[in-house]
């Protein structure tokens, strides 16, 4: 099991992430990523999939041509947890 | 350019597809696919991505762990076209 982040922990975590937006209603973070085309978008998705599978924590995400929307929250915690922050950081690293 | 299907063409096409549902409000078809786990779901998505890129027609789709929801419509046609039916058929073929 993993605990939900407190408001203070969440605010500190968001400062270390790049462009992720907190959704209070869902207690989740999301980010819309834009690419040149579908090939580039799906290439990114493939890299995220490998990171997600390796860490055992998976995103809710959607894709439409060059756009990828990723939403992260932790089902077991009932909201945003350290697992989401770690996956978000790993996704940010892919794009550096 | 490609034309929207007529109601008659659409009904005939849906009969040849496997489990796709027509959404009148969106003039689109969608299908929710369930898999064993994320690995199997993303493996399927990778195969769909290759088919989509090859045909130059891409889905709107989302994934959450073992579930993949695919929605097909043709932006240029303003609704469902033969391109969507062909992509749906190709996706069905992956799962045979």
TrEMBL record, chains A, B:
It comes from the Bacteria. GO terms for biological process: tetrahydrobiopterin biosynthetic process. GO terms for molecular function: 4-alpha-hydroxytetrahydrobiopterin dehydratase activity. InterPro entries: PCD_sf, Pterin_deHydtase. Its EC number is 4.2.1.96. Pfam families: Pterin_4a. Keywords: Lyase. The keyword Cell membrane does not apply. It catalyses: (4aS,6R)-4a-hydroxy-L-erythro-5,6,7,8-tetrahydrobiopterin = (6R)-L-erythro-6,7-dihydrobiopterin + H2O. Belongs to the pterin-4-alpha-carbinolamine dehydratase family. This is Putative pterin-4-alpha-carbinolamine dehydratase. It comes from Devosia epidermidihirudinis.
């Amino acid at each position: 099991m993993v605990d939900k982040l407190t408001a203070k922990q969440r605010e500190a975590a968001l400062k270390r992430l790049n462009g992720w937006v907190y959704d209070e209603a869902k207690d989740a973070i999301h980010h819309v990523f834009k690419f040149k085309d579908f090939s580039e978008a799906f290439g990114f998705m493939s890299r995220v999939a490998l990171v997600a599978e390796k860490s055992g924590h998976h995103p809710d995400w959607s894709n439409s041509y060059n756009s990828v929307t990723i939403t992260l929250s932790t089902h077991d915690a009932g909201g945003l947890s350290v697992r989401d922050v770690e996956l978000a950081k790993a996704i940010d690293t892919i794009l550096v």
